[in-house]
Amino acid sequence: MKAAVYIRVSTLDQAREGYSLSAQRKTLTEWCATRGYEVYNVYADEGISAKDITHRPACQAMLEAAYNSEFDIILIWALSRFTRSVADLYDTWDKLQKHNVSVVSCTEGFDTSTPTGRAMMGVLGVFAQMERELTAERVSFALAERASQGKRTCSDVLGYDLDGKDSLTINETEAEVVRLIFKKFIEYQSYLPVAEIVNAMGHHGRRGSSFNAESIKKIVTRPVYIGYYSFKGHLYQGDYEPLISEKDWRHAQRIVQKIRCGRRKYIR
């Protein structure tokens, strides 16, 4: 019997004892050795959440091998390592069944080759998804609380550098580019000409990319430039220095609204 070992940690898990990739690998390979399973391969996804399966490269490679019937079981440390989505769980399990591949959880003691194991998997899958959704709610609440206290809710803003965990400080070189973009947008009242102008002047985004109409639109509509953080449609005043005057920002928003209403053409 051949076993594919699947291990995964999210960024949060890496700091928690017992969740590390090395700990999972050791436990699962020992499990195979004591039961006489041949380890076909160890598939590892590091720093990736269990929200869904499709964005995990190692998991996708493992499932492709499973659908080619290259091994007999998928061995996991716990169902939460495999997925926290009930939809993903049942969709994947349906496909695995067609290729006679079972899923075995080392720590939870279920084996989907048996009716009881399949029932346990279903129950655990529901609770895994519930835990993911509760965690998302807690994170959302924490971010909303930070925003209400004027603390930073963004991590990458052209024109600013991070100032500790809670605030921003002006990056003067980038700030000049942002001010130029607002000035030219108010002058030309269109996104694309502004992108062409700043690109021709040799300016670029934080990651070195050229500006386009969409990136100009994103910049001129961000309230962060007048001193406000945004979170889920609400604005919260931050404790940092604005780059743009409120008068210019509101002028820019009126132009954005005209473009949105079709009074001016927004192409590309």
Automatic annotation (TrEMBL):
Q: Does the keyword DNA-binding apply?
A: yes
What are the entry keywords?
A: DNA integration, DNA recombination, DNA-binding
Top-level division of the source organism's lineage:
Bacteria
Q: Where is the active site?
A: 10 (o-(5'-phospho-dna)-serine intermediate)
Resolvase/invertase-type recombinase catalytic domain boundaries? 2-150
Name the InterPro entries for this protein: DNA_bind_recomb_sf, DNA_bind_recombinase_dom, Recombinase_CS, Resolv_N, Resolvase-like_N_sf, SSR_resolvase
SUPFAM superfamilies from the entry?
Resolvase-like
Task: List this protein's GO terms for biological process.
Answer: DNA integration
Tell whether Nucleotide-binding is among the UniProt keywords: no
What GO molecular-function term can you cite, just one? DNA strand exchange activity
Which residue numbers delimit the Recombinase domain?
A: 157-262
What protein is this chain from?
Recombinase family protein
Q: What is the lineage of its organism?
A: Bacteria, Bacillati, Bacillota, Clostridia, Eubacteriales
